[in-house]
Amino acid sequence: IQKDLTNEIKEMKDVFEELEAEVAQNVIDTKHDEIERKNLLIGNDNLIAECLSKEV
């Protein structure tokens, strides 16, 4: 019984560590997406400024 409990605890620990890694990766992906969105907005603002300068 002790060996079974030890194995079950190890399995649960492995699952928990996998979940932690997935959460960490999700945080990284979210930050990456935020940066990409901000860069797109900056690029859009630059294009608008360029168009306005050509119209004048």
Number of helices: 1
Question: Approximately what portion of the residues adopt beta-strand conformation?
Answer: under 5%
Shape: rod-shaped
Number of strands: 0
Number of domains: 1
Radius of gyration: 24 Å
Distance between the termini: 83 Å
Mean pLDDT: 96
Helix content: over 70%
User: Low-confidence parts, pLDDT < 50 over ≥5 residues?
Assistant: none
Q: Helix/strand-derived class?
A: mainly alpha
String of helices and strands: H
Q: What does the main sheet amount to? A: none
Protein name: Integrase, catalytic region, zinc finger, CCHC-type, peptidase aspartic, catalytic
Organism: Tanacetum cinerariifolium
Brief write-up:
The protein has 56 residues and is mainly α. It is 96% helix and 0% strand.
Q: What does this molecule look like?
A:
There is one protein chain. The protein has 56 residues and is mainly alpha-helical. It has one domain (1-55). Helices cover 96% and strands 0% of the residues. The chain has one helix at residues 2-55. The radius of gyration is 24 Å and the shape is rod-shaped. It starts with a helix and ends with a helix.
Keywords:
56 residues, mainly alpha, Integrase, catalytic region, zinc finger, CCHC-type, peptidase aspartic, catalytic, single chain
Explain the layout of strands and helices.
Elements (H helix, E strand, L loop, with lengths): L1 H54 L1
Organism: Tanacetum cinerariifolium
Protein name: Integrase, catalytic region, zinc finger, CCHC-type, peptidase aspartic, catalytic
